Amino acid sequence: MFITAQQIFAAMSAIVEAPGYPLLQSYKSDFYEHDLESLKRSWTAKARAIWVVTPNGTHLNFIGHHPRQLEDVDAAVHSGYANIEIFSLTPNCIKRITAAEAIAEAKKLDFLISNGAHVTDTLGNTIAFMRITKTGNSCRRRTNVHYEPGLAFTGSPSQLVALRNIAIQASIAEVQTLFVAVDRITVGDAIWTETGLVQVQCQPDDQTKSVIFSSAEFENGAKGFYNQRRNCWSTLPNATQFDSHNARISSPIGSQVISLKDARFLVAQSLLCPTQ
């Protein structure tokens, strides 16, 4: 059994480090750095992945979360090399498979998405409802992804990894480019992080209140929320509570109106990831 990322990585290492192994002769950082980091982020007790070893590097793709993951697997197994090895990775075993078998495995989904927003398990139980908000501009495509938990949401590592990967793949499909960054993933009143969900103290009516947000001010010195009463910028998440109409009238050039709930998430995220 390969329950942890370290356990599955050790088993993978034994394959490529075996005496006389003909593949992975160069670009070994693909495996020892990129694959290892990917395993640390996404390996769980229910993980499934396709691992391709070529003479020049490796390709590790997790599957079962979103239909777009099939495209990544297809590209990896048809990379043009005459000599490659393809493996199916699960907590139970590492199995050498063919390209056709890899494609078939990637087509099997453990999570389903209907109407672009309804995330369920294979039995149809609702895990979450997804909402993607486009941010950034034509040069820097970015998104924020919010999940409203359903009755089948448990917050297990397997679910959280799946929601992260779904957010990434769904953002690519929404923006229609591979070059999109997911700035923030939220689940209910919590922020998704690599180590789990971090709860943010929100009020029931936060979504109906508005603040003015300036990304330039916020990024350049802990400013960003406009306090209408004091006529100044403030980092306090509840700096300004007034309706959207008045906020738009008062909005300085280069800023935008966001909900008070989003403001609370921004402040919490800046504290969790001060360099982001």
UniProtKB/TrEMBL annotation:
Source organism, top-level taxon: Bacteria
Protein name per the record: Uncharacterized protein
Lineage: Bacteria, Pseudomonadati, Pseudomonadota, Betaproteobacteria, Burkholderiales
